[in-house]
Design goal:
Elements: E1 2-9, E2 15-17, H1 20-26, E3 29-34, E4 40-44, H2 45-56, H3 63-74, E5 77-80, E6 86-88, H4 91-96, E7 102-109, E8 111-116, H5 117-138
Antiparallel strand pairs: 1-7, 2-6, 3-4, 3-5, 4-8, 7-8
Amino acid sequence: MFMGQFQHCLDQKGRLIIPSKFRELLGQSFVLTKGLDACLFVYPKDEWVVLEQKLKTLPFTQKDARAFIRFFFAGAVEAEMDKQGRILIPPQLREHAHIDKDAVIIGVSNRVEIWSQEQWDSYSAEAAVSYEDIAEKLDLGL
C-alpha cells in the first residue's frame, strides 16, 4: 500500500526521484498517466491491469465513457526507474500536471500521485476545509 507525502524537484531533463518507500512497490516498470485534479497517476503493472479490466467494462456506446478512456489511455506511458530511482516524466504529462520544478509525490493506497507543489498546496488547502464534512457524508465509521 502506498501512503505518505514527499517533496522532490525535477532535474533539467525532466526526471523526478521516486521516494525509496515507493520504489519496491512500483517495481522496475510501471504505468504513468494523466490523473484527475491536474495530477499524474502512477500504477504498478498489476494495479494497471485491474484498472484496465474495469475500464473495458464501460459501455463504449456512451460518449462520456469513450472520452474518459481515450483521455486516460492516450496519456499513459510505460515508465522505468533508473539506478538512482528517478523516472522521466514526458513533456505532455508535465504540462498536464503543471510541473515545472517542485513536485509532491503522495501515496494513495493502490497508486502514487505526482503533483506540482503549487497545485498540491492549493488542492490540499481547499480540501482541508471540507475534510470533516466529506468524512461525515461518506460515513466511513472512523
